[in-house]
Amino acid sequence: QSLKLTYPETLDRIKEEFQFLQNQYHSLKLECEKLATEKTEIQRHYVMYYEMSYGLNIEMHKQTEIAKRLNVICAQLIPFLSQEHQQQVVQAVERAKQVTMTDLNAAIGHQLQTQHLSHHAPPIPLTPHPSGMQPTGLAGISSASGLLALSGALGAQAQLLAKDDRGVHDTESR
C-alpha cells in the first residue's frame, strides 16, 4: 500500500527533489564563480610578481655591470696615484667589496626614505639568498607600491647610466 502513491504525491515528491537539485546547482554555481574570481586574482598577482622579478633581475644585472665598469675605471686610475694613495685606494676598494646584510638594509632603508616611500611599507630585513648571491634593490617594498618604486628606481638608474656612459665616452675619446 505504501508503494501505491497517488499522482499528486508523486508530483509533489518530484517537485521537492527538483527544488533540492536546483538549490544545489545554485550553490555550486556560486562556488564556481567565487573560485573563478580567486583564480583571476591569483593570475593577476602572478603576473605582477613576474614583472617585479623580471625588473629586479634586470636591475641586478645593471648594478653588476656598473660595478664592473667602476672597477675597471678604478684599476685604470690607481697607477696614476702616488704609492701612498695607491695603497689607500686599494684598501678602500677592498673595504667597499665587503658589504654586509646590515649595510644593505641600511642603504635600502635610506633609499626608501629619500623616495618618500617609507610610509607605504617598512623595510623588511634581507636574508641571504639560498643560491649564495646577495640580493640587491628593493627588498622591503610592498607588492602594491613595488612596481611604482621599481619603475622609479629603474628610471633613475637609466639616467645615471646615461650620464655615466657620457662621462666614460668623454674620457675614452681624450
Keywords:
75% helix, mainly alpha, single chain, 174 residues
Sequence-ordered SSE layout with sheet pairings:
Elements: H1 7-77, H2 83-97, H3 101-114, H4 143-173
Helix pairs in contact: 1-4
Gyration radius, rounded: 31 Å
Helix content range = over 70%
Distinct helical segment count: 4
Give me the strand/helix succession: HHHH
Q: Work out the strand percent.
A: under 5%
Question: For the report, how would you describe the main beta sheet?
Answer: none
Structural account:
By secondary structure, the chain is mostly helical. It has four helices and no strands. Helices cover 75% and strands 0% of the residues. The protein is rod-shaped and about 115 Å long. The termini are far apart. 6% of the residues are buried. Among the domains are: 1-80; 82-118, no CATH class. Mean pLDDT is 76; it is low at 122-148 and 168-174. Helix 1 (7-77) runs parallel beside helix 4 (143-173). Keywords: Coiled coil, Nucleus. It is found in: Nucleus.
